[in-house]
Amino acid sequence: MPWTPNLSVGVDLIDNQHKMCFEKAEKLFEAGKNNSAKEYISELLDFLEDYTKKHFADEEKYMLSINYPGYAEQKKAHTGFIAQLAKLRTDYNVSGGNLLVILNANKMVLDWLTQHISYMDKKIGQYAASRK
Ligand SMILES: [Fe+2]
């Protein structure tokens, strides 16, 4: 699934990181068709653990820099996603990457990306624009 302009938050730093995440998820998804499922899910988890660390930190720094009033709500959502990711990692370690874990992982990532960006991250951009 590609990043589409309707997902634009209007802040370049955030948009570029979101685009990168979509690209990477797509690449992994493609590779997953050829690779073994086990390899795929392990790579996806590695990527997401790295990506969320950097992206959430950058996004949070940006929100603080503009005194964004929805910061606490965002921070909570980010923490929630990190917890879901940790659960996925545990499920993966326990099951060895069965199909259910893979389907859950794909669904979680896509849902989260689109929902979180459309409903929460966009508000950051709107707030930033309103201050100008
Ligand atoms: Fe966010």
Chart the SSEs and their pairings.
Blueprint: H1 12-34, H2 37-65, H3 71-95, H4 99-130
Helix pairs in contact: 1-2, 2-3, 2-4, 3-4
The structure holds fe (ii) ion.
Fe (ii) ion is lined by residues 59, 74, 78, 116, 120-121.
Number of strands: 0
Order of helices and strands: HHHH
CATH H-tier superfamily: Hemerythrin-like
N- to C-terminal distance? 33 Å
At CATH level 3, the topology is: Four Helix Bundle (Hemerythrin (Met), subunit A)
Largest sheet descriptor: none
How does this structure look, described?
This protein is an all-alpha fold. It has one domain: Four Helix Bundle (Hemerythrin (Met), subunit A) (Up-down Bundle). Helix content is 83%, strand content 0%. The chain is built from 4 helices and no strands. α1 packs antiparallel against α2 (37-65), α2 runs antiparallel to α3 and α3 runs antiparallel to α4. It is elongated. Bound molecules: fe (ii) ion. Fe (ii) ion binds next to α3 and α4.
What's this, in brief?
With 132 residues, the protein is mostly helical. The protein is 83% helix and 0% strand. The longest helix has 32 residues, at 99-130.
List keywords for this structure.
Four Helix Bundle (Hemerythrin (Met), subunit A); 4 helices; binds fe (ii) ion; mainly alpha; 132 residues
